[in-house]
Amino acid sequence: MTIPESDNPVMYHFTNASAWEQMNDGCKNLVYDFETNRYRHKTEFDLTGLLPMGSVIKYKILPGLPLETYAPSSFGILNLQSWVNNYEFSKVLDILLGNIGNVGENIILLEIDLINEDKPYVYERAHVERLRQIPYDDSDGDVSNNEIFSGPIFDFFRSLFLKSKSEPISLEERWNVKVKDAYFKYWGSRVPLSDYDGSYSLAEVVVQKQIPLERIRLIKEFD
Fold first, then answer.
1. Order of strands across the sheet with 74-77?
2. By C-alpha distance, which of 23, 50, 24 is closest to 112?
3. Where are the domains of the chain?
């Protein structure tokens, strides 16, 4: 597969055939107001292109993170090679594609030109993907021996759901600490695309604006 070069920075976005059809034909959608962090009204016309749908933090509300974290977002890959051939996260692309395609539906790879007005940010996806490598129960019963369960981050989260530091810590509570810590690191890693130095293991691009169809190209359809 040969990917044509572009003068603009690009991200690669996987989607399914029905979503790609919707990008071309347009759909009526709610308009998101970033000043109030809420949907304002339904559009009176069909919107084409890539519309932000997901959110940066796919988890319940985490104290300390701005509302922008939960605003509709589109996601892309900055460097396909680093996701295809990643020693630490060898199954990351399989997991991504498994969450995109419906049964019997083709998967689409898109190349998208990015401009400054899109306000693209780059995140280190590895912080979240490492959660898949941690057993739910990896406790030896002594939280002092595990870095993630000590220090200010743990004390903060522990205060949210425990009455005192002397109470026993359940498996669910320990796992919640890991998840919240991972997402805080993920959010903290974000940098504007223009400032990104290429150092992330799994560079993920996040855009919270509509991207018009004329900046989107179909690279390949996988059946």
1. 191-192, 121-124, 203-207, 74-77, 10-16, 107-113, 216-222
2. 50
3. 10-129+189-222
